[in-house]
Amino acid sequence: MLIDGHGRKVNYLRVSVTERCNFRCLYCMPEKPFSWVPHENLLSYEDMFRFIKVGIDDGITKIRLTGGEPLLRHGLDGFVKMIHDYAPDIDLAITTNAFLLEDVAQKLKDAGLKRLNISLDSLKPEVAQQIAQKDVLAKVLRGIDKAQDIGLGIKINCVPLEGINDGEILDLLEHCKNKGYEIRFIEYMENSHANVKSGLNSQQIQNIIKEKYNITKGERVGSSPSQDYYLDDGYKFGIIEPHLDDFCRDCNRIRITAEGDLIPCLYFEDALSIADAIKAKDVKKASNILAEVLKNKPEKNKWGDENQSDRAFYETGG
Ligand code: SAM
Ligand code: SF4
């Protein structure tokens, strides 16, 4: 079992397979980064898998593949299959913008994938284009429909932004309710890479929904950063409330970047690389580095600290 320096059980690994992206969402990556990590610096799937096996053997039970945009990396279905075949019961999911999903959904499902978290910030083509800085909506919606048709579990992520998509909160909620999947509104987390004036906080999001519906706050479930809310008919939606809530107290996650940096916490500068150990097939050393990183996992995230890391979401693996 993996326990961090503050006694929290860590069983959730978020794996970034690339920092690259085919969108330029205003709240995440509005400009092309100054330089991408060269391909040769990325860990191969085989190397990543060697580390993932260390994690699973040590107690990881939940894995999310993310980025950047994970579907941009070729052969992702093969990577999913490696993980699924090693640990079929692992809770394995992908976070994606769904632009490339229509063509690969079936391959991912066949490889063992069960769930997807999909970013959908608007149902209006021009607003989706304004946020992603690309005409994306039709292809994204086709990708989501395809995934649902073949039986993949779907949750939608939406970041409400002032003056951009804040008029669509009810439409997005009702769209997801009618389609039969959960939506989670994420409070915009301010960062130096973004080009956004401000986002809506949880109370503002709730107030908009309350204009039409009664809502009831649910119990906090496990280590999820999402607070559940219910409409009177039982429909559940979530709000991820980093401005309101200290979801660090039962944080159960660590992250690994596409280059092999193990990051114990968002906006925390101190990461340790497992790249050399894992490329040398020294799994004992990789396991020791993992233990060291966990020992140093901070009690609270460094977001908002004056010395917070400037590492972007798309690099850390959002
Ligand atoms: N490209 C994939 C996607 O967009 O779903 C996966 C990576 S993206 C970094 C993961 C999640 O982070 C998305 O749901 C996105 O909305 C969220 N995100 C990115 N920047 C954010 C910010 N500044 N505040 C809140 N959420 C953010
Ligand atoms: Fe790309 Fe996802 Fe960031 Fe948007 S939120 S720019 S899709 S990594």
Class from secondary-structure proportions? alpha/beta
Give the helix level as a range of percent. Answer: 25-40%
Task: Give the C-level CATH assignment.
Answer: Alpha Beta
- The mean pLDDT is 91
Bound molecules: S-adenosylmethionine, iron/sulfur cluster
Separation, N- and C-terminal Cα atoms: 24 Å
Q: How many domains make up the 3D coordinates?
A: 1
Which descriptor suits the 3D outline? globular
CATH architecture: Alpha-Beta Barrel
The major β-sheet equals: 12 strands, mixed
Are there runs of 5+ residues with pLDDT below 50, and where?
Answer: none
Oligomer description: single chain
Beta-strand segment tally: 12
Keywords:
TIM Barrel; alpha/beta; 318 residues; 31% helix; binds iron/sulfur cluster; twelve-stranded mixed β-sheet; single chain; 10 helices; binds S-adenosylmethionine
